[in-house]
Design brief:
single chain, about 130 residues, mainly alpha, Serine Threonine Protein Phosphatase 5, Tetratricopeptide repeat, about 70% helix, about 0% strand, TPR-like_helical_dom_sf, Tetratricopeptide-like helical domain superfamily, repeat, PPR_rpt
Amino acid sequence: MIDDAFKLLKEMVYDKGILPNVITYNSLICGLCKLGRWNEASKLLKEMEDEKISPNVKTFTALVDAFCKEGKVEEAEAVINIMIERGEVPNIVTYSSLIDGYCLRGEMIKAREIFDSMTLRCCLFFQR
């Protein structure tokens, strides 16, 4: 099904002249991440940026979640750092994914540190 979405994207761009936006890319990135194809999702993020389309919190959170589900919490933290550098603020979903990632690896102390950090930032109760 995701491959059909990429065919539709090509048709949009090349046949209809419709340029993709952040929502288009988010849909594709989220789809790839749900299928565990995080490497392709990362490449799509690069393509998105090459096209001067700014990723948003949803874009970054999809990648964080995908990396965490694969046990790649270091990569997830790198994505969060890039996110923050670009002015996007991680939300409760972003932090929850990271906490899940650490829990899946049995790193409860690190998961608790992330939770405490999140609550200090008032992320738990006040979302952007």
